[in-house]
Write a structure and sequence with these properties.
Layout: E1 4-8, H1 13-25, E2 28-34, H2 38-48, E3 52-55, H3 58-67, E4 74-77, H4 78-86, E5 92-95, H5 103-111, E6 115-118, H6 122-138, E7 142-144, H7 147-155, E8 165-172, H8 190-193, H9 203-211, H10 213-226, E9 233-237, E10 243-249, E11 254-258, H11 264-272, H12 286-289, H13 304-314, H14 318-334, H15 340-352, H16 362-381
Parallel strand pairs: 1-2, 1-5, 2-3, 3-4, 5-6, 6-7, 8-9
Antiparallel strand pairs: 8-10, 10-11
């Protein structure tokens, strides 16, 4: 079946893999967006011939417009341009934009009635109440692309009544610092934090994996995607990243989704659901792995999971605050302005000082985002 797809964040890790899947399935690319990677998106435009393309950076957009003037692709700029691409009327919008920048395009895609393949977890972390409400109003499905949430979604297929579900179990690789204690992490380098054992991801999400903030964000996202109470979501460290997540049912049976650690599996399933079709991913050989291991997370060393759990329990815009504070602290660490353990300290302090919002609109989310990032910046500057 032919489908049209808009890929937001097309030059990143998820976006480029999504285009591999799209090419293999013969789908039409209707729109592409990127931030500043002019060379990469130019190649994508010439290959996939989208109607629209957008660059967040105005200068990059101007350069791209000149470069692809000989094509039929219309080049847009800024967040308005990205949102126009999201609202282009494609059958599917795959949102792989990094960070809070993905929220407004998500809303634009939902309001346009496109099915949403979501790889931007911050969309639901920051504005879950808003986004899920809009999706329901517009009759739009949100199909998870994160490997963990896709695994839960796949494991739930065939479940006739949500009451049958006892709990969700998110698996975590443990990142590059598994087994280390806080006193061993004081002087770790950015290079060490970026050395993920299993997955090839962008810099921001790889640092989040090292701090395990990523798992805290995924916990919050799972609350919204699957309408679960936070207390019914567990986390287990599984170093091999073969079991991507599990669902435990009321009879204590557990269903899991397994596969090699390759994001093209969840990307493809989101775009082909409810059908399964051949993929370019290699087969899983359990005998090659031999042993699969499972450990409890070290919540004392990696306390950001606790910060996120408290934030979603407290509700309102506390998750949005935690996410924004982490974006700023994560960036500061990558820029060499703070040490690794300061990421957690800054996020925790910011959330503790945030204003309470029980209900919110998009403007409130954006205000909280700006306040939290500003708070972290001030603390770093001293």
């Amino acid at each position: 079946m032919s489908k049209t797809v808009a890929v937001l964040g097309s030059t990143g890790s998820i976006g480029t893999q999504a285009l591999e899947v799209i090419e293999m399935q013969g789908y039409e690319v209707k729109a592409l967006t990127a931030s500043v990677s002019v060379d990469t998106i130019e190649k994508q435009i010439r290959k996939f011939k989208p109607q629209l393309a957008a660059m967040v950076d105005e200068k990059a957009a101007a350069e791209l417009k000149i470069r692809v003037a000989d094509t039929s692709t219309k080049v847009l700029s800024g967040m308005d341009g990205v949102c126009e691409c999201a609202a282009c009327g494609a059958d599917y919008v795959l949102n792989s934009i990094v960070g809070m920048a993905g929220l407004e395009p998500t809303i634009a895609a939902i309001n346009a009635g496109s099915e949403l393949a979501l790889a931007n977890k911050e969309t639901l972390v920051a504005g879950g109440q808003l986004v899920m409400g809009l999706a329901k109003e517009n009759g739009v499905s949100i199909l998870p692309v994160d490997s963990e949430h896709s695994a839960i979604f796949q494991s739930m297929q065939g479940c006739r009544d949500k009451k049958e579900i006892k709990k969700l179990i998110l698996t975590a690789s443990g990142g590059p610092f598994f087994g280390k204690k806080r006193d061993e992490l004081g002087d770790v380098t950015v290079k060490e934090a970026l050395n993920h054992p299993n997955w090839s991801m962008g810099a921001k999400i790889t640092i989040d994996s090292a701090s395990m903030m990523n798992k805290g964000l995924e916990l919050i996202e799972a609350v919204w995607l699957f309408s679960m109470d936070p207390k019914d979501i567990d986390i287990v460290v599984h170093r091999q990243s073969v079991i991507h997540s599990l669902v435990e049912f009321c009879d204590n049976s557990v269903i899991a989704q397994l596969g090699v650690p390759d994001m093209r599996i969840p990307i493809q399933y989101a775009l082909t659901y409810p059908n399964r079709i051949p993929s370019p991913v290699k087969e899983l050989s359990l005998t090659d792995y031999g042993t699969l291991t499972f450990d409890k997370p070290d919540y004392e060393t990696f306390g950001l999971i606790n910060v996120c759990r408290k934030a979603i329990n407290d509700g309102g815009l506390f998750p949005a605050c935690a996410n924004a504070a982490n974006e700023e602290a994560n960036l500061a660490f990558r820029q060499g302005k703070i040490k690794f353990l300061q990421i957690e300290e800054l996020v925790r302090e910011t959330v503790e000082n945030a204003q309470r919002f029980d209900t919110y609109k998009l403007g409130d989310v954006l205000d909280m985002y700006n306040w939290a990032r500003g708070y972290v910046k001030e603390k770093i500057m001293g």
